[in-house]
Design brief:
The complex is a heterodimer of chains A (287) and B (316).
Chain A lengths: L2 H32 L6 H19 L2 H23 L7 H23 L10 H4 L1 E3 L4 E3 H23 L1 H11 L1 H6 L4 H24 L8 H16 L4 H21 L4 H15 L10
Antiparallel strand pairs in A: 1-2
Helix pairs in contact in A: 1-6, 1-9, 1-10, 1-11, 2-3, 2-4, 2-9, 2-10, 3-9, 6-7, 10-11, 10-12, 11-12
Chain B lengths: L1 H20 L2 H27 L6 H18 L4 H23 L4 H21 L1 H4 L5 E2 L5 E2 L2 E2 L3 H24 L1 H11 L1 H6 L4 H27 L1 E2 L6 H14 L6 H16 L6 H15 L1 H22 L1
Antiparallel strand pairs in B: 1-4, 2-3
The chains are: A mainly alpha (287), B mainly alpha (316).
Chain lengths: 287, 316
């Protein structure tokens, strides 16, 4: 193996890890606070992605695309939370099944609207050219994805550990009744977290579309990858999502580089080992 | 009990005359109902007895279908040899998945089966050399045995109906057996069953593999019925279709899942006059079910069931 290939695969792995972290962070956040596995996550990713492509085409700005894509997914998430999820609050299985049903409906509607043709993001000119990373030249937009993931992780960590809202969220997770008795508006907090999680799914869809094109069935792939990441890292843990994304991204990149036909098998391997030896995930808590 | 006997006799009679009296369309729809009834039964063994909602039962059907297509079409094995091999391979997958999901609970089980099942789906797309990728493998046909073309829709119906009835009756015995009651007991209170000395994990694992085997049998019929094996039957929408059918018909009962399949197939043929968005229709049906009986999924049936389970234990 040449050093160049090694650097290339490492950078690809880091890019994929960054994208996986952005995808999975919303899912793990919603689970951590609300114990809701939002299985419509992949559909919100698609919704954000398609919206973002329109916005980027019209405005030429990737940032505008990410924000609007995220906002549309957030609006969808809020509607689902207020109109549907609230009716089955507390019934874990019904909540999960409800989000599956919603996800199928959204994905099918998007299929009607956009057809099965793959759509990719028209990147602004500045992001298309490669940049010099010292070890090699690497596409600028991939560097941007990595930077965004680090910023997002840092921001979420700061909010969770250093602010009153973060403290309230952690209190709501640990002991809902006591948190409510302390005057924390838990239902509002839940809606807020679900909104943020949906925003992250939609924003991930726009960012991710610069890396892999929007396609029929991508919603399920994204959902599967995000689930794999949080199963490895531990459901509900932000640190777990980061580590799970790194493991999955690296394994997947090196496997694709050397044994492409078995790439999925190697994706399956870390999850299997975790399930056998540590079913709650690396940073998960046993309940 | 005598009511159920009469129902079974009536059902067998209906299945016997169906291919003789009905038209081609009704027979092919009948085939569909029977195959999906087996899948819904496979789903409800886990959902109704253990409270485990699985999204990978269609995966086992897909695996046996792929084994038949790969060995039968690409390698020219005879149908008599590929069918048992296909079922064994699918059951082996069920055993591995069963071990991986053994320690999970309701929602994490749902997530794990979704992730595992969709991994196989993605593999069937990616492993183009073996699976044919998106286009799949076409030309899967049943042979002519002793002058009877097994691939003929009506002959196919007769074989499928016989197998399905035998499997349903087998599961009926299972539900009445002490093993079936043990599964219900585990769902009610796992710790109590463990304290009583029952092998809880072994019982769950056995149920999972058994359900996988039934799905594998359904998969054998499905691949011969379609004549082509592609990734689409392994997709999430198929898994949710089966789940919805079982929920609509009542997954805690033996015949409910089959009833649910009949309802969905009829519903689909009605709505297909207006729209071809079947996935959306299924999503809406599932959504309505959950909103109309949110507790039905978890509690209302739960109380009825624990009551009837108690009376069954008392009478036996």
């Amino acid at each position: 193996m040449t050093l160049h290939t090694f650097y290339f695969l490492t950078l690809n792995g880091l890019t994929l890890a960054a994208l996986l972290f952005i995808m999975a962070s919303g899912l793990t956040l919603a689970f951590g606070l609300m114990r809701v596995v939002n299985l419509a996550h992949g559909a919100f990713y698609l919704l954000g992605g398609y919206t973002g492509v329109h916005v980027v085409q019209a405005s030429g700005s990737l940032a505008a695309g990410v924000l609007v894509g995220g906002a549309v997914a957030m609006a969808g998430g809020l509607l689902v939370e207020r109109l549907l999820l609230q009716r089955v609050r507390g019934l874990d299985l019904s909540e999960a099944l409800l989000t599956i049903a919603v996800g199928l409906i959204i994905a099918d509607a998007l299929l009607v609207a956009y057809g099965g043709r793959p759509i990719s993001l028209p990147l602004p000119p500045g992001l298309r050219s490669p940049v010099d990373l010292g070890v090699m030249m690497y596409p600028a937009f991939r560097v941007v994805i990595m930077v965004l993931a680090v910023l997002l992780g840092g921001a979420l960590w700061l909010v969770m550990s250093r602010t009153r809202i973060g403290a309230a969220i952690r209190a709501g997770v640990d002991d809902r009744e006591t948190a409510m008795a302390q005057g924390i508006n838990v239902p509002l907090l839940f809606a807020g977290v679900f909104a943020v999680a949906s925003f992250l799914a939609g924003a991930a869809g726009v960012i991710g579309t610069s890396y892999m094109s929007l396609n029929q069935g991508l919603d399920v792939r994204v959902l599967m990858l995000s689930l794999v990441v949080i199963i490895i890292g531990g459901m509900g843990s932000l640190k777990g999502a980061a580590v799970g994304a790194l493991i999955t991204g690296m394994v997947s990149s090196f496997a694709t580089g050397y044994l492409p036909q078995f790439a999925l098998f190697f994706l399956f391997l870390p999850m299997t080992l975790i399930l056998v030896f540590r079913p709650q995930g690396l940073f998960g808590r046993t309940t | 009990m005598s009511n159920e006997r009469a129902f079974i006799v009536g059902l067998v009679a209906l299945l016997a005359v169906w291919p003789l009296l009905m038209g081609d369309y009704a027979v092919s729809q009948g085939n569909r109902v029977l195959m999906y009834s087996l899948l819904a039964l496979s789903f409800s063994i886990l959902a109704g007895r253990l409270g485990w909602f699985s999204l990978c039962q269609t995966t086992f059907a897909g695996i046996s279908g792929y084994v038949i297509a790969i060995l039968g079409v690409n390698h020219g094995w005879p149908a008599g040899a590929v069918i048992p091999v296909a079922i064994v391979v699918a059951v082996a997958f069920a055993a591995v998945f069963g071990l991986l999901t053994l320690r999970s609970r309701a929602v994490s089980f749902l997530m794990l089966t979704l992730a595992l099942g969709q991994m196989v789906w993605a593999l069937s797309f990616q492993w183009v050399d073996v699976t044919g990728g998106y286009n799949g493998i076409s030309g899967v046909r049943l042979p002519v045995v002793l002058g009877i073309d097994l691939g003929n829709d009506r002959v196919f119906f007769a074989v499928l109906a016989a197998v399905a009835v035998l499997i349903f009756l087998g599961v009926r015995r299972l539900y009445q057996s002490s093993f079936g009651l043990l599964l219900l007991g585990i769902q009610d209170n796992e710790e109590r069953m463990r304290a009583l000395g029952h092998p809880v994990y072994l019982a769950r694992f056995t149920a999972f593999v058994l359900a996988g085997a039934i799905a594998a049998v359904a998969g054998v019929f499905m691949v011969f019925d379609m004549g082509i094996m592609s990734p689409s039957p392994l997709g999430l929408d198929h898994a949710v279709w089966v789940l919805t059918a079982a929920v609509v018909g009542g997954y805690r009962t033996l015949w409910g899942p089959a009833l649910g399949v009949v309802i969905l197939v009829v519903l689909e043929s009605v709505v297909s006059q207006f729209t071809d968005r079947h996935t959306m229709v299924i999503g809406l049906v599932l959504l309505l079910c959950i909103l109309l009986m949110p507790r039905g999924l978890a509690e209302v049936f739960g109380q009825n069931r624990s009551r009837s389970a108690k009376s069954e234990t008392a009478s036996s």
